[in-house]
Amino acid sequence: MMSDVDETKVELPPLSFEKCPESDEERTKRLAIEELIAKSPENRIPLAALRELALSNYGLVNDDLRRILWPQLAGVDVKDLERAPTLDELQSHPEYHQVVLDVNRSLKRFPPGIPYEQRIALQDQLTVLILRVIKKYPNLRYYQGYHDVAVTFLLVAGEEVAFAIMEHLSTTHFSECMQETMEATQRRLMFIWPVVLFEQPELFHFLQRSTVGTLFALPWYLTWFGHSLNSYKAVVRLYDYFLASPMYTPIFVTAAILLHRANVILQEDCDMASVHCLLSKLPDDLPFEDLLITSSKLYDKYSLTVIEKKVEELIKIEQEQRKLEEARINLRRSVSSKSNYNVSKWFLKILTPKSVMMTTAVSIVVGICAYYYKNQYLAAGIS
């Protein structure tokens, strides 16, 4: 069963590919990474050091370095890549038309101003990339939003490397999202709440009272924020971080964003529509370097076992509240039904044959009088 990210989104402007001037800190880090690559056998940086670079400020800095280092983070051997089939070879796949439809709707995620022929070629490569994965792994289900992840790796690493990375991620980080239903993903999103509760109870209780749920965070989780951010630079920086992190890290980044925006959220009207609208659109000025530091601290602070236990408690509380609400509704229905029955019974008691005859007689008299007076008024020229 596919999950439609479009149901939860606000219409987004085109992705901004604006190139900002390199800061002194970024230049220093870039030069350090380039030196490490030059010194490493076959340009392969030791994995622990590479992860540290991807997690720390500015990540892998630019796409030239990502093209070399993203495959290493994903465990991909660039010397052993499979040949990409043609689009014609994949047209018989049952998901073909849906994938083409989604790819055609993803024009805003491509760099602006590229020649038409190049854009068409990229769209075809993206379609092939996605279909290759779900054809090779029939147990995995394509979901709308998957293409937002795939297009990022395609733009940075090229078609064949992007396929190898997406193959790896689809069987690890995104495996829950690609099940027959979204039940496991929806449950995973509930992991947000214990973290918020432990860190800021006031915010947690406000969000629970608003009944906003976790739908606002679904596209964030399904696409590693690729669908929801307007800055390409922010998207690839997050991908550096996620590739170097455990698979559930997007949950902690989501919690970090909610905690960062707590004051703004608490000033909003406490109802589902208002809060969902506020949360669904991410501000352009989020301080992601600070948020990623917070996310890492939260991950280290709270074990998944503790979080899962709290989720179980929250689910039980929610189920009990639902049962109470259902009981109240049934009670109201019962009282209303009994009241209606008593009124009907009273009406039937007073509706004796004698009362029916009297009511009929009165109605006839009133009708005759009305007819008589109407004729009198018409005769006098009064309408």
From TrEMBL:
<feature type="domain" description="Rab-GAP TBC">
    <location>
        <begin position="60"/>
        <end position="246"/>
    </location>
</feature>
<keyword id="KW-0472">Membrane</keyword>
<dbReference type="InterPro" id="IPR000195">
    <property type="entry name" value="Rab-GAP-TBC_dom"/>
</dbReference>
<feature type="transmembrane region" description="Helical">
    <location>
        <begin position="355"/>
        <end position="373"/>
    </location>
</feature>
<keyword id="KW-1133">Transmembrane helix</keyword>
<dbReference type="Pfam" id="PF00566">
    <property type="entry name" value="RabGAP-TBC"/>
</dbReference>
<dbReference type="GO" id="GO:0005096">
    <property type="term" value="F:GTPase activator activity"/>
</dbReference>
<feature type="coiled-coil region">
    <location>
        <begin position="307"/>
        <end position="337"/>
    </location>
</feature>
<dbReference type="InterPro" id="IPR035969">
    <property type="entry name" value="Rab-GAP_TBC_sf"/>
</dbReference>
<keyword id="KW-0343">GTPase activation</keyword>
<keyword id="KW-0812">Transmembrane</keyword>
<dbReference type="InterPro" id="IPR045913">
    <property type="entry name" value="TBC20/Gyp8-like"/>
</dbReference>
<dbReference type="GO" id="GO:0005789">
    <property type="term" value="C:endoplasmic reticulum membrane"/>
</dbReference>
<protein>
    <recommendedName>
        <fullName>Rab-GAP TBC domain-containing protein</fullName>
    </recommendedName>
</protein>
<dbReference type="GO" id="GO:0006888">
    <property type="term" value="P:endoplasmic reticulum to Golgi vesicle-mediated transport"/>
</dbReference>
<keyword id="KW-0175">Coiled coil</keyword>
